[in-house]
Amino acid sequence: MVLGLRLAGGRDVVVKARADDGRATSCVAVQARLADRGFPCARPLTPVACIGSLAVHAEEFRPGGEVLHGDTPEVAARCAEVFARLMAELADVTVAPPLPNPPWVRWDHADSGVWPAIDFLDSRDQSTVPAHVVETAVRARGRLLAAGLPCVLGHADFEAQNLRWQGREVWAVHDWDSLAWQPEAALVGAASGAFASAGPPTLAPVESSEAFLVAYQDIRGRLFTAVELEIAWAASVWMAAYNAREQAPHGDTPLPDDAFRTQAAERLRRAHA
User: Fold this and answer.
1) What is d(CA 83, CA 191) in angstroms, rounded to the nearest whole number?
2) In terms of Cα–Cα distance, which of 63, 80, 97 is closest to 194?
3) Which of 3, 67, 130, 181 is the most buried (most CB within 10 A)?
């Protein structure tokens, strides 16, 4: 729940409340640290308070900016530049890992089956989830779990709808509740597939995901190993499979177009999965 409030002195603030799953304190602490460093995000005004079953905090209102639409390699490179800057800022931030990870990047869960246990999804008719979506998720998850790469902090919902731009400069990165604790390559890979989502989840073209990965490595000044590249591709297709599974039970809601069906095999091939 997000509420906009105007205080008696005329200041506009935002109050956020969500179920207290133990993640919010770390997420808000990271957001505050980055805001203090001048990273473009709303500055938290309070720490997290536990109120009943909710974790609540207030932050500054940061309006303005435009959504950057498009899924071309050029747009991918612009988004990768922001993601690289974000990951560099997070590299020396120390907080308790924000666990459990958001479900769309929670391939490392200990629940039975391929998907993390989520009541509102598990209670739906699972027969509506196409077999190729489940098969893709199984193969991608297997590759991700076999990697053994160290985990780092990263933004796990790096989508167009969560960024605002002023011209060619990013003005705000939103949704800090979606921080995750996963390997760097996996977080970059997930972003490379999801960066163009400005509404319902989409999957960027393979060539645009590749441009994202190349630009990220260039800006960070470090080439991924062969294993890291495979993990990046596996994460991109896992997240797409999760989104397809989430949308499938809605009879009037299509899967994220034909991109998943047409790209899954190539992304799995690149993941060596």
Assistant:
1) 8
2) 80
3) 181
Q: SS3 for 69? A: coil
Contacts of 136 (CB under 8 A, 6+ apart): 237, 241, 260, 264, 268
Burial 76-105 (b: 16+ CB within 10 A, else e): bbbbbbbbbbbbebbeeeebeebebbbbbb
Distance of CA 121 to the CA centre of its chain: 19
Find how far residue 129's CA is from the centre of its chain: 22
Three-state SS at 5: strand
Q: Are the CB atoms for 174 and 254 separated by under 8 Å?
A: no
Report which secondary-structure segment, H or E, holds 89.
Answer: helix 73-90
CB 149 within 8 A of CB 108: no
Average pLDDT over residues 204-221: 98
Assess contact for 236 and 193: CB atoms under 8 A. yes
Whole-angstrom distance, CA of residue 249 vs CA of residue 154: 30
Please state, in angstroms and rounded to a whole number, the distance separating the CA atoms of residues 100 and 233. 22
Task: Dig out the tokens for 18 from the structure.
Answer: 């969500």
Cα separation, 88 vs 189, whole angstroms:
16
Q: Is the dihedral of CA 166, 208, 77, 224 positive or negative?
A: positive
Based on C-alpha coordinates, what's the Rg of the chain?
Answer: 18
Half-sphere exposure of 131 (CA within 13 A, CB side): 0
Q: Which residue pairs from 2-11 have beta carbons closer than 8 angstroms and sit at least 24 positions apart in sequence?
A: 4/61
Check: pTM over 0.90? Answer yes or no. yes
Q: Strands across the sheet with 54-60, in order?
A: 2-6, 12-19, 54-60, 49-51
